[in-house]
TrEMBL record, chain B:
Cited InterPro entries: Homeodomain-like_sf (IPR009057), HTH_AraC (IPR018060)
GO molecular function: DNA-binding transcription factor activity; sequence-specific DNA binding
One Pfam family it belongs to: HTH_18
Protein name: Helix-turn-helix transcriptional regulator
Gene3D superfamilies per the UniProt record, alphabetical: Homeodomain-like
């Protein structure tokens, strides 16, 4: 299931201000993803099921895209890909959004597989 | 009665049992995490009795003598995850040393004994989420060593995160004390938490909590708040609310019977506290969860 569309950005302040002021997005969450990457998750009131993520990375070339795929079980998916001979996987890592790992497609686009976790839900 | 045992290639293992009655005693072979998914399991060790509920877990070190007791009208489903000392040593080396050091010293035959505090800790965060997946694999009798090895690797890392957050960082938060004094205070504060975890349904006050943790009432109040950023009373209320919530979700007991069963004296204050903690009334939560499930 595809849940996010993402874009790399260069100037954080300018980009966030553009999307919030001109395109009516609101910043839903700011997440540190690993040591070098920061995500701003933006939502529109009328379209809660799909979000836009603005990605700022200290090291990577910003002309690549990232596709974020949702999963119910990150480690199961990680092991399935590994058992199928896929070797270029990052190790699963934790963030405030949940658990995820990533790999690159042949064109160099980054594919992130994420299991979102409601850490702050008192019912869990 | 239903049991499941799986030893993996790296000698880590999982053992699940579902029983109404059991009483065994033995020496623990490997460092083990003890969980229950439903009901309560009692452990007697080091002259104290600890009760594991679904919202907490217990770590038992290698070599500890203990008794385990289940005596319940309903089935108690429990899970033990044990870690081989070599596995723990390898992970700890990887976490504590730089990549360069590990490349220069790829093998370390010396396997030291690890000793963690044998106290109840909250089942939360990534450990809770990963354990739900493990429970599903055990239920479905998944026989995939690679997958289970990966999950148990994460379980140990998740345990270290909780240990780090709830024991080491709590210890660091204690003000103006020498290291060995801080260690002793946190040990006694953990006795206070264990006492609350196991006696939440009794009419306990600060005096009883302090007596059972070998601290004065004032010392307990001051250091508990410093270390855990909540008072003993707030911690007790949280445990009572969580356990009431578990009973509302998983049993048919009427709410007016659940209130005194978890230690609350007054139904109206229970409803007020419940609503403020869970953003929902107990009756609405029962309607949305229990009746839908059954």
């Amino acid at each position: 299931m595809i849940r996010y569309a993402s874009l790399y950005i260069d100037d954080k302040k300018e980009s966030i201000s553009f999307y919030t002021q001109h395109l009516d997005f609101t910043v839903f969450k700011n997440v540190m993803f690993g040591d070098y990457e920061q995500w701003w998750i933006l939502k529109k009131k009328e379209q809660q099921e799909i979000s836009l993520i603005l990605i700022w990375n200290e090291e990577e070339n910003p002309d690549r895209s990232t596709l974020i795929l949702n999963t119910n079980d990150c480690i199961l998916e990680y092991c399935r890909l590994k058992d199928n001979g896929f070797r270029q996987l990052s190790t699963p890592l934790y963030s405030t959004l949940g658990m995820s790992f990533y790999f690159y497609d042949p064109a160099g686009n980054k594919i992130v597989v994420i299991e979102e976790r409601a850490y702050n839900d008192p019912q869990i | 009665m239903e049991t499941y045992f799986k030893r993996l290639n790296n000698n880590n293992s999982l053992y699940q049992e579902t029983k109404k009655y059991s009483h065994v005693g033995y020496q623990n072979h490997d460092l083990t995490l003890k969980f229950v998914f439903s009901g309560v399991q009692n452990y007697i060790m080091n002259k104290k009795e600890l009760m594991v509920h679904p919202d907490c877990f217990l770590m038992i070190n290698k070599g500890t003598d203990f008794e385990s007791k289940i005596h319940s009208q309903d089935y108690v489903q429990s899970l033990s995850i044990s870690f081989d000392p070599k596995f723990i040593h390898d992970i700890n080396r990887t976490l504590q040393n730089s990549t360069n050091y590990l490349l220069e010293h790829p093998v370390d035959d010396h396997t030291p004994d690890f000793h963690f505090p044998e106290t109840l800790l909250p089942l939360k965060s990534n450990l809770l989420f990963n354990l739900h997946h493990i429970r599903r694999f055990v239920k479905n009798r998944v026989d995939d060593d690679h997958l289970l090895e990966e999950y148990l690797h994460h379980t140990y890392i998740n345990y270290l995160e909780i240990f780090n957050h709830d024991v080491l960082l709590a210890e660091e938060r204690l003000e103006s004390l020498k290291q060995h004094t801080r260690e002793e205070v946190i040990k006694r504060l953990n006795l206070a938490k264990d006492f609350i975890y196991c006696n939440y349904n009794q009419q306990i006050g600060l005096k009883e909590i302090a007596e059972n943790s070998f601290l004065s009432v004032n010392h307990l109040l001051r250091t508990f708040k410093q270390a855990f950023e909540e008072t003993p009373h707030q911690f007790l209320t949280k445990i009572r609310l969580k356990r009431a919530n578990y009973l509302i979700k998983n049993t048919a007991f009427p709410i007016n019977e659940i209130v005194p069963a978890v230690g609350f004296e007054c139904a109206s204050s229970f409803i007020r506290l419940y609503r403020s903690y869970f953003n929902c009334t107990p009756a609405k939560f029962r309607k949305a969860n229990y009746y839908e499930k059954n």
